[in-house]
Amino acid sequence: ILHEVSVIMRKRARIFAVLFALIFVIGYPLAGEFIAWLVSEDTGFRPSSDTDVIVLHPVELILLKVRISVYLAIMFTGSIFSVEMVRILAKNDLIKERIDEADLKLPNPNLLALMTAIFSLSLMILGAFYAIEYLVPFLLDYLAKDAAAADLSTQWTLTNFSGFISSLVFASALGFQVPLVVLLLLKFEVVHKSELTKYRRHIWFSSVVLGAFLSPPDPLSLILVAAPMIILFELSLIIHKFIK
Fold first, then answer.
1. Between 136-149 and 219-243, two packed helices, what is the crossing angle to 10 degrees?
2. Fewest Cβ atoms nearer than 10 Å: which of 74, 143, 194, 234?
3. Are 229 and 211 in contact (CB under 8 A)?
4. Hey, is 87 helix, strand or coil?
């Protein structure tokens, strides 16, 4: 099944590449608006009026907008990729045989893809909300107070400040896709629940590694990004139990 999916996806790689480029072009000017919103005193991200956000290099703003545009393109292209994969799996003959053997009734593949897209978008919004409302303000306030306790003035470069926030938002939006991935893998019997529970510690460790890769390089950010993924993974297993 995975081999067949990989072959089909390779054939459509050009479409996803064009889609990625299109979202990047659209996201570039939006990234400028996003940065202006982040550094504004009205957003509440700046812990205090004594905290300054500065620019050190002439092209710093441009490079930052490029990075945010790439993040945006990855999120949306990845979501569309997941939806397309679901649609392909739902039409796969081997999958259909397993569904018939289990006496299950799945919705129309196009309807299933639509449901997956809605679920994925909802989880993405929920992850971004968690980051913007709780994770980012908490960490920025903690870091500012930590610097003040050491009698240090707080000055953040635009790249570090905006990159820190956008990285956490991106990591949370991506990390909150865990329930969708787990439930789809279990639904199509790509893996079995017993396998996931058997390798639970490995999955937890992988979540920490992924959190370290996605989050800024500090232990507290890593924990606050990885912990929701682990909790959502366990919650997914519970949800699957009731759905089954």
1. 160
2. 194
3. yes
4. helix
H or E element at residue 151:
none
**Could you tell me which of 75, 91, 82 has the C-alpha nearest to residue 114?**
82
Contact indicator for 214, 170 with CB cutoff of 8 Å: yes
Q: What is the DSSP string of 12-70?
A: THHHHHHHHHHHHHHHHHHHHHHHHHHHSTTSS-SS-TT-EEE--STTHHHHHHHHHHH
pTM above 0.70, yes or no: no
User: What gap in Å lies between CA 229 and CA 233, rounded to an integer?
Assistant: 6
- Tokens representing residue 116 in the block: 């997956």
Stretches in the chain below the pLDDT threshold 50: none
3-state DSSP helix/strand/coil % of the chain, to nearest 5: 80, 0, 20
Contact 85, 24 (CB under 8 A): no
Residue 223 and residue 217: Cα distance in Å, rounded? Answer: 11
CA geometry: angle at 213 spanning 210 and 215, to 5°? 100
Q: For 183-217, what is each residue's pLDDT tens digit?
A: 888 877 778 888 888 888 888 998 888 878 777 66
Rounded CA separation 207/131 (Å): 17
| Phi, then psi, of 57 in degrees rounded to 5 | -125, 150
